[in-house]
Amino acid sequence: MTPSRARRTIVVGLDCAPPRLLFDRFASAMPTLRRLRAMGSWGVLRSVVPPITVPAWACATTGRDAGELGLYGFRNRAPASYGMRTATSADVDAPHVWDRVVARGERAAALFVPPSYPSRAEASTRLVEVSCMLTPGADVVHTWPPALGAELAARFGPYVPDLERTLEGEAAMDALFAMARQHFDIAEHVLATHDPRLAFLVEIGTDRLNHLFWPLLDPSDPRHVPEHPIARMACDYYGYLDLRIERLIERSGPDTNLIVMSDHGARPLLGGVHVNELLRREGLLVLRRSPREDEPLTPELVDWSRTKAWSDGGYYARVFLNVRDREPEGLVSLDEREPLLARIDALLREVPDPSGRGHSVVRPREAFRQVRGRAPDLLVFFGDLALRSLGAVGARDIVVGPDVVERDGGRGGCNHDWEGAYVAAGPDWPRRGERPRELATLLADL
User: Fold this and answer.
1) Nearest to 54 by CA among 78, 84, 79, 89
2) The overall pTM is greater than 0.85
3) Which pLDDT does position 4 carry in this prediction?
């Protein structure tokens, strides 16, 4: 694709939206997407390593991989510490696709695209920005220019950056509809008042829906409940998103290029692996006291003077070595590092795998073109993302079912998957039908 400078491009990100919903299960509710598929290109969009919202969108919008960005998850290692901190916009020092548009002297809008809190758009008067789901709430500055926040609140109510995490069932679905309505209303307003050549927006609600209700949506999930009312509401929700995408096209005009894309997909969650408990039983992770059952691992609980390895839980496992001269109380010498990694690699591959897909243990230098920041020493994808990594210690079992995942602090509906989806159509996008693409290169020509 070589976009015309005279034409507008709109990118709509549907976080965590998988091909099996967009192109199959909910396709009948999405006539706009079906029409765009017939006009342009569409298919599976292979996600990045790791397939997690914050690094994935950063990779998609910069063309860099997570190692080049030094961004390995929603949370990353804090400097000179064993702790983790939430990612921010400051963690991405590469130019985004909208920065390239602005550098050409054109206007752009970046709406709700992770990671975009706090706003770092101060240098440009040609960029409109509304920050993403990392925004703490409507009462903080979340737009560029800052005055835009009050204007949007007066028209569309207090900004809702994310779904309230305590909501469940129909209340959650109602909130998802309301959040999408506000986000697309803001997008239409920005298109009308600022006339950007590139408008890029991400709706996080699709991710929240999948994590809450995946067993109700996917017949391949072992926990599937047929004909559940929430599944019908979810189908209506995807249909509503399709309707709002059609409205964006109508308000922008027939010469608009449109890309609908997801940063990763979703798949049934079959359980979890207590990585830290496994390391503790192997004597590689030593605690200051006996843990309670399923106790979260904190830096204060660890005896770092005797610990050689520990892990951070999540959609995949990040295993860190307590390396001498690298960590605050490093113990592992340079000579010991490779044999220890080989030992942990073998240990993790031997973990029982209820998925039958096999565990993938990856070194950063194998996954990334460059390794920056405080990268993990091993990246582990249990069951090829069928199981999550659990960070708690004191667990009775190393491998557990999805019900235990809920107690470990994560929504147990689904896990992330490598396969996202995209649809691209418009005057500058050739009609090529179904063809797979890569997330990090899809937007290279914008």
Assistant:
1) 89
2) yes
3) 54
